[in-house]
Amino acid sequence: MKITQVEVFRVNIPFRIPFVVWRGELPGKEHVLVKLTTDTGVTGWGEAAPFLFYAPETAAGIASVIEEALIDEIIGRDPCDVRAIYERFGMLDGHLFAKGAIEIALWDILGKVAGLPLFRLLGGPVRDSVPVTTVIHTTEPRLMGEEAVELVARGFDSLKIKIGFGIDGDEAMVAGVREAVGSSARIRVDAEEHYQTKEALAIARRLERYDLELISQPIARTDWEGMAFLRSQLPMPLLADEGIHSPHDVMTCIKHDSADMVNIKVLKSGGMLPSLDMAGICRAAHLPVMFGSMIESGVGTLFTAHLAATLPNVFSTELCGPLLLASDLLTEPVRVERGAIHLSQRPGLGYAVDERRLSDFRIDS
Question: Does pLDDT of 316 surpass 70?
Fold first, then answer.
């Protein structure tokens, strides 16, 4: 079996409600879908979900790198040789989203050829479903509380609030959500590098009364020493997020004692193979792992969910992309029930891409 064709699609998918963080407001975001076709007719789909707030790649750049540099490395290759193909990508520095998109499609093909869902191909699940923490849309505290109540009624028991709007604004949002849901849900906050160390400490102590599950990356991603200081002082667990791109970053975080837990974003990190390395390092260091989201569509969400289902040290996921986007690109929606993703037993990713819907959101190059 050989790869005979690589197709790249840039799409722009709107958000159901504009996505708001302290950096700004976005009505939608661009994604790159990759379709690999083999000489036996088996196809595989991959996705890159870049987000300039968090990583330095764009959809246009990803599509260009795949078309100009990576296609020649995979045409004619056996798609089951995932590791060998990925090693060939090592000649290209960076461009992790582009590499990861192709790797996802290779795994999708491998699962289909084996007749197994991806989580079975990886050794089988350690949990029956994959719990999801979802993001509450940033708006007035009262409206955030109302959305939180609705989400809890749908079975979500962990909610995330984007902070970074100043100490009073941050507290008002957290207080509004906590008052609305009481003790029925865990609440975590994500400052997205917005604060200096002393500000972050003051805010965390102000928010302590609301019984937070964790605080994510309150200071700059490169300030490992500052994160270590905060970890020693904060009243709640500290999550390393934006600074985590690679196994080397995980090692740096551990070396500096900079976090209580690590957020691995599989697509941002280049796919499954580097993410497995990262999760393995965390397990050896007794650090819990969260699998985060770049607000992927269904393809990327399912890929990470399959991986999360198989790793015992994954304590949480934030795979809420299909909940935030106004539409998805699959022939049927990702099955999210009672706050968790339930994976299909069908081979590969377990879902098919709706190519007619894909064309509706496609951006002409």
Answer: yes
